[in-house]
Amino acid sequence: MKGYVFHGPGQAAWEEVPDPSVKDATDAIVRVGAVTICGTDLHIIKGDVPEVRPGTVLGHEAVGEVVEVGGDVRTVRPGDRALVSCISPCGRCRYCREGTYGQCLGGGGWILGHLVDGTQAEYVRVPFADLSLHPLPGALRSEDAVMLADIFPTAYEIGVLNGRVRPGDTVVVVGAGPIGLAAIATARLLSPERIVAVDLAPSRLESATAFGADAVADAREDPGQLVADLTGGLGADVVVEAVGVPETFEMCTRMVRPGGHVANIGVHGAPATLHLEDLWIKNVTITTGLVDTRTTPTLLRMASAGRLPTGRMVTHTFPLERMQEAYDVFAGAADTGALKVVLGGEQREVIPVADA
């Protein structure tokens, strides 16, 4: 079979790799039908994730058909169409028993495309299949379902739920890339009074409006003043950081109200200053986290009922063998306008987000 293989910083290729096989009784083998690319994959190729060894097939999100299962697998069987989760929980360790699957101590957690071969291939071995695979209803398109492997659970759990969004809140989302847009969409499920999106790119602010933001602000034009004006000087109840650079994190801490929440989703590669000299007196809660995917079943039901705009996230589709081209389009989002790219699935004309 073929897969997209990491060979070291700046080096990756779509090439022949060995077919996966069942190694443990809890494994399943899935024929990949649709797969997407994550910003984390770009970080790996840049060399920012040193745990990924050269020779590893990348990718941690997919939809496909189960073709083989180990002897201990009970929840799926060959022929089932399933979502491959980005997190593989062992189900037995302390963290898994608490539902904190991302911190699994039993050989799971984020392992696909990280510590073991991942989903950007024709077939993938999925460890801990009973908790890592989610059977899919036939009515849910593969391109829509694959958005629930990582991006929507991450935005919902680490942004919306950690931020404790409540009805009537003012929510600010800093960063209107795919994660920020998913945070906007899932925050709307909890009926905030308003959602404000902050970004540098006009096209992404336009997308934020399409995903449900009530107001948008250019990050260079003092968005804190807009938030103050909208809240009578109080500040935002919840601020979601969805970029991952020091400047945006510090901006979030300036916009949150006393007693409010800053929910950090962004992956940070450099230290950020925590201004405790200002924050210590304000009862501010700051949360971080890796997605656990415990909400994936709920989000799948919401998507099946048409309550989540998963399809709007997909801006480009490719056949699986055009993986390198898809990476180039995704990495060049500033020029291509890419949000999420999907390989495989049903090839179709994609409607621009702003017109959806």
UniProtKB/TrEMBL annotation:
Keyword line: Metal-binding, Oxidoreductase, Zinc
The Enoyl reductase (ER) domain, residue ranges: 8-343
SMART domains for the chain: PKS_ER
Keyword ATP-binding: no
Protein's UniProt keywords contain Oxidoreductase: yes
Pfam families: ADH_N (PF08240), ADH_zinc_N (PF00107)
GO molecular function, one term: oxidoreductase activity
Highest taxon listed in the record's lineage: Bacteria
InterPro entries (UniProt xref): ADH-like_C, ADH-like_N, ADH_Zn_CS, ER, GroES-like_sf, NAD(P)-bd_dom_sf
UniProt-listed SUPFAM superfamilies: GroES-like, NAD(P)-binding Rossmann-fold domains
Cofactor requirements of the protein: Zn(2+)
Family to which the UniProt record says this protein belongs: Belongs to the zinc-containing alcohol dehydrogenase family.
This protein's name: Zinc-dependent alcohol dehydrogenase family protein
Organism of this sequence: Streptomyces tagetis
Lineage: Bacteria, Bacillati, Actinomycetota, Actinomycetes, Kitasatosporales
